[in-house]
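Appendix B, record 7
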Amino acid sequence: MENLRGIGLMVLAMAGFALEDALIKLAAGGLGLGLAVAVFGLGGTAVFAALTLAAGQPVLSPHMLTRLTGLRALFEITGRVGYFLAITQASLSSASVILQATPLVVTLGAVLFMDETVGWRRWGAMAVGFAGVLIVLRPGLEGFTAASLFAVIGMVGFAGRDLATRAAPVALSNLQLAFLGFAVLIPTGLGLSLFDEAHRWPDPGQAGVLGGAVLAGCGAYYALTAAMRLGEVSVVAPFRYTRLVFALALAAALFGETPDGPMLLGAALIVASGIYILIRGRRSGSSSAPRAENANG
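Structure tokens (predicted):
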């Protein structure tokens, strides 16, 4: 029963993250990406500041000033900005597909920088997954879109953030890390707004869309946390890939996007390799997965 509840919460979390992405794309279209990022960061900061205080924890901590925490913040900015640029400049469908390769990069990073080992089967699965990314990108072919490379930058940023989260000071709670992750988006967004064509505060409609994105993202974060703590990781975690189903559905409904054959093939390879690496890693006792609460953008 706990596994079923965990699966339900994981699917709900992925729906929330997909909705957050779609709402950000909608808001940035009329507002400008920089201000959308700043307002999104402000909303998330306020939510997690309140939750941190409600949990009896300090919002600010000296442990936030460590070099590793700063590195995590830099990766957070890279991941968020890269991915938001991808979904606003390219299609939500392709960016969402590429994002699913983040666990593959996390596994590769754990091998390269954290002295973890993987067998030839997982090396092969990573190769298959990265081949799927290339199929989606189609470099040198007619369907190639340069803006899709922003999704690769975002994916690498999120993977670096997840690896840095694993090594972050244990004195920092997940709520404090989430607060910090949203807080760094405020100055980042304001800086980006200098390059936006639009320089205006959101009207009530745009504010509502951004508010919805904040609520969807924060709700998804909590559902993800509960899912990973409630059910068995090997059973619940593979359902994180349902995010792609929701993303493709929202992309079709809101933006008229239709994934073509190569994109679907690439998505299948990425998801299949990611699930295999996850299951194989659990069987071999690998710890290459990041803290579950911070595994998604």
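Remarks on this record: Residues 137 and 143 are 8 Å apart (CA to CA). Residues 287-295 have pLDDT under 50 and may be disordered.
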